[in-house]
Amino acid sequence: MSEPASSSVPSAPRADGMRIVVPPPLPLRGPLLAFGLDALLALVMMFALMMACYFGWALWRGVRLAMQHDGALAPDALAAQLGAPGALVLIVMTLISMGCTSLLLYVWRRRATPAERAHSFAAARRFRTWAWVLAAGVATFLLSSLLTWCGRRLGLEPNPSNLALIEAGFAQYPVFLSLFVVVLAPLYEEVLFRRVLFGRLWAAGWPVLGVALSSAVFALMHEIPGLTGNPPLTTVFLLAVYVAMGAVFAVVYRHTGTLWAPIGAHMLNNALALGMLQASGG
């Protein structure tokens, strides 16, 4: 997990303060098609893995029900008693589907070279990098909090569609839910949205477009219009919040030259949000 090769990092600062010569951007068609393919593969993989997890859970649940009733349940009765996965199961399904998708696309489509990894770890050892992490983590938390407050003043209830799941998971499994929200989710999301998607266009010399498109995909993966149960205006508002957050993380990645920086900022944002959620009682 690291930045694009230094020869393709537009205007990234060297450790000695010199500037890397900015190469001319590649023709947009090829990188844009590759970006679209990456996004499509991510969507297909996540959906396929989520369905596989659901069918695996349904099979396990059905076998358990059949054993409890000595196989006497009719198929219709068995289907009626299956129910829906609980909070823990849904969180694990999400972890498997998105985590595996991010890892597979990283290895298959955007694996870091040894030179990239060395450059990334060198950047991660600089004080400036962690100043960016602290500033960005606090800024995204304050920005999302301010936008949420503004939304409520406008008569909206901009609650993310995954909020109920997070609250239920924290009530039953606080340690695991905290680990998932603060550590695991930022790791796989930054690998996918910043390294794979944003990094694709950044390395091709189109960083501004990369920020815009990767942030849009980041938002759509969190709030899918028409499937969240939120009114259209609330959905648009939440999408804008996620776009802003994704843009901040992409800018941090570009200015620090290491993926560990947006990962750290994302972790800090989520930790602050989870802490505020619990402090306010939900």
Quick recap:
Residues 4-21 have low confidence and may be disordered. With 282 residues, the chain is mainly α.
Question: From the helix content, strand content and strand pairing, which structural class follows?
Answer: mainly alpha
Compute the number of structural domains. 1
Biggest beta-sheet profile: none
H and E string? HHHHHHHHHH
Shape: globular
- Please give the number of β-strands: 0
Organism: Pseudoxanthomonas putridarboris
EC number: 3.4.-.-
Keywords: Hydrolase, Membrane, Transmembrane, Transmembrane helix
InterPro entries: CAAX_protease (IPR052710), Rce1/LyrA-like_dom (IPR003675)
Q: What does this 3D model show about the protein?
A:
Mean pLDDT is 86; it is low at 4-21. The chain has helices spanning 29-68, 75-82, 87-109, 114-124, 127-153, 163-172, 174-203, 207-222, 232-256, 260-279. It has one domain. Helices cover 74% and strands 0% of the residues. The radius of gyration is 21 Å and the shape is globular. It is an all-alpha fold and 282 residues long. Helix 1 runs antiparallel to helix 7 (174-203) and helix 7 (174-203) crosses helix 9. It is built from ten helices and no strands. It starts with 28 loop residues before the first helix and ends with a helix.
